[in-house]
Amino acid sequence: MYLLKEVEIKDFRAIASMKLELKGVNIIVGRNNTGKTSVLEAIALLLSSYNDYKDCFGNNVLKLAVGRGGYSYLKRVHSDIAVVKGHTTNNEVLSLYLATGREGFEKLGTNQLLREAIDTAISEVVEKRFKRILQGLKIDITRSRRRIELLPEGTEQRKAYERELEMMLNRLKRYEEQEDLIKRQEQRKIIDELGFISIILIDNDPIKVHMVFKPESASLFEEEDKEFVELKKYKLPILVSAELLRRRPGRDIVEKLPVDKLIDLIDRLRSMVPYFYDYRNGMVIFNYSDGREIVPLASVGDGFLALLELLTPAILGVNVNVVEEPEIHMHPGFLNQLCRELLKVVNTYNVQYVMATHSLEFLEYLFKYARELNVLNNINVIRMYRLPNGEIDYEILSGEEAIEELEELKGDLRGP
User: Which positions ≥6 away from 389 have C-beta within 8 Å?
Assistant: First the structure.
């Protein structure tokens, strides 16, 4: 299973430049407005972009990110493009380029490789839509001829249909005779109508281009809102789960598990939640001192469901799990058990977590069990700062350095 060794972020959101070496468990800490969520978004966007920005459960990561201010705020103020790169454990380099506005598109075009990818994608879009227009026009012509045949000669209604047919035939003739000219014109229009574009690469090979058109776009082809153009066939490099919304946990995640994985999850839940007994066909069985209680999964509390959401993707084999505030909905008792099981899951399934937290309790529990399980060397803490000039800075602490600061120096890992 391939993981991320390193991530580079440039001009994304408020982050000017950042380079992170990742381990199995990566915890991002810092005060509010220091860029923690931006780091999570950058990683989730990079990995999900190879699956049309969908994570392993179908969540639209781009839609979630754009919901925080629109496409233009994905890149840093006064920057033309944003770039996120990931180096994987099988030595591939994954790259994502994001741009908005004419300046951004022109900046991408200064790179010959990216320019060729954009030109190819636009040409494919024009070609596809040109064929669709011709096909639709030919269908309309056939239907018009059939209507005319059913009407008596000389009637006003037939004359009207004949005039309409003549206009469609002239239009079809113009398209066929001037195909190259019309396509070139439409290519220029598409460039003017682009609102957002992203290009993904594997190593130095452009793989896919994603284009979003401005709502006010109006051209010959009546463009749809967005287009994905695959330039080359490829295998999805890394599966990602993106829990970027601080929301109530979902209640259908368990249904996605095959039987062997479900058995593993049930065993882990039994070790974490003393009163949990079993799960069968959408029902959770709790074993209390005065008897057993059977409850529909839809009626179980948010804390229990949050455990499921955090552990299930890893048990399913999802390579990288991006989580914002894992402590949300968690009672301290659950949080304690979560930290222990999370470290075991990372070791058992060789998966990776990148998480942002505000919880000192979460950090204390995590490092307590990391020392017990002898896995401190598989933990990173990324501490984010906002400098007086407004720029974002960061430092990386190893697991050993972080626990020393927590216990010996009695410091607050979350920063000043």
Answer: none
* pTM, 2 dp: 0.86
| Tens of pLDDT, residues 38-47 | 999 999 999 9
- Is residue 156 over pLDDT 50? yes
Residues with Cβ within 8 Å of 130's Cβ and at least 6 positions away in sequence, in order, are 175, 179, 182, 183, 186, 221
Neighbours of 137 (CB within 10 A): 15
**Distance of alpha carbon 41 from alpha carbon 245, whole angstroms:** 11
Residue 267 three-state SS: helix
Determine how β-strand 320-324 pairs with β-strand 240-243: parallel
Q: How many of the other CB atoms lie within 10 Å of CB of 110?
A: 9
Which tens digit of pLDDT belongs to each residue from 104-123?
988 998 999 999 999 999 99
> CA–CA separation, 406 vs 367, rounded Å?
9
For residues 48 and 240, the answer to whether their CB atoms sit within 8 Å is: yes
**Residue with token string 């019309």:** 182
Quote the CA–CA distance of 18 and 7 in Å, as a whole number.
Answer: 8
